[in-house]
Amino acid sequence: MNLVNIAKHLLYLPEREFSNEGSRTSADEIVASEQLFEVLKSFKDSRFSELDVYQTLDFDDEYDETTDKEEGTDEEESLDDTDDFDENQQQNIYNHFTLEEMEEIVEWVDQHPNYKFTTIKHRFQKVKHPIYITRFREYIRKNGTRFQKLEEIKQFMWDEFYVKRAVGKEAVHDTDLELFAIQKARELKWDNFIVSESFLTRFKKKNRISSRRYNKIITRASSIRKVCTLEGI
Fold first, then answer.
1. Within a domain: 90
2. Which of the two residues, 154 and 218, has the higher pLDDT score?
3. Which residue has better confidence, 78 or 148?
4. Residue 220 near residue 47 (C-beta atoms within 8 A)
5. What is the spatial distance between Cα 112 and Cα 115, in angstroms, rounded to a whole number?
6. Cα(167)–Cα(170) distance, rounded to whole angstroms?
7. Would residue 222 count as lying in a domain?
């Protein structure tokens, strides 16, 4: 391709689209023109070029929190209270105990079956109510609390997003995040887990992920191979 012809027409297009004010060229404009020239040089040995425009989720240090919709409660905030156990105490379990802690407490209680709750509470001061022990057993049997499963799902989503976007440089979309979440939920035997719009919004907001558009020029180099013929043989 003839770069001079391309440059001439490139100059014609903005002159036709915008008025030529004849102002002095600024330093930023010089830098921008140098960058465009580097792009232009990529066309020199190409016979075909196209502009690939695509969108992807990406890391964003300047996440615009004002654009987020204020959604209702998501899975993490809508824990069902199926009996008359105090809601604040149940939430305390979700927020202040890891699965390992629950297993440790239950193991100790089983080793000391004759100990009264006051003794248990004295040893494990975060245990505020006898029903905590019952809850712990239920959670361990179900392979962890709902809150903990959510944390595992979100960690898996982040890990997969990082690998694909930062390492593999692949485009990632909301549908990919949804698939990551469902995949992990199935591993945790949470078959009725649903990825809501609010869940994705909160996940992206927390991890400062936003959608961006990229322009990528694809060029195909013309063949420089010599053609051999049988003429003259």
1. no
2. 154
3. 148
4. yes
5. 6
6. 8
7. yes
